[in-house]
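Good day; I would like, with your permission, to put a structural problem before you. What I wish to show you is a protein chain and, alongside it, a tokenised description of its three-dimensional fold. Thank you for your consideration; the sequence and its tokens are set out here:
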Amino acid sequence: MRLVYLTGSSGVGKTSVGEELRRRGFAVYDVDADGLARWFENGTGTEVRMPTYRDDTWFAENTYRLPVETVQRIAGEAEGVAFICGTVGNDNEIWDLFDTVISLSVDTATLRRRLVGRGAFGSSRPELERVLAWHAQVDADNSRYGALLVNADAPIPEVANRLLDALGIR
């Protein structure tokens, strides 16, 4: 079994590409849609609910985490190639559990357009600015840690093809 982490900034297309890969028959798990990741208070490790209003202080005190045990369970259950799609704040704990990490990449203008239009996390002005600030470093950070960068500025089926080509499985 080969376990792939599909990551990148909010709004780059991780969920959409994951849905396309699932349509093509791959095992795909989404940290958001499948409820794999949850928010935890940094000081106590207690799970918390994300409030409607989230400011810099809230984000500094809480981290969206994908438990190591969840990744290990999926790795043990999956056959063939499996993907976990998402972005979490504890990459340093889970990164080495994956055979390959793919980071989807888009330019800032494309990301801004996608975030504003989706009406989910990152679409409010404060969150949009927060995501754009994260995005400014994500390609450099992820590639420094060994992620393969895949350009996600094309229609979703083409991005899925690029991802599979990067993995050498198309």
User: Anything to note?
Assistant: The radius of gyration is 16 Å. The longest strand covers residues 2-7. The chain is about 45% helix and 20% strand. Helices lie at 14-23, 56-61, 68-77, 91-94, 108-118, 125-144, 156-167.
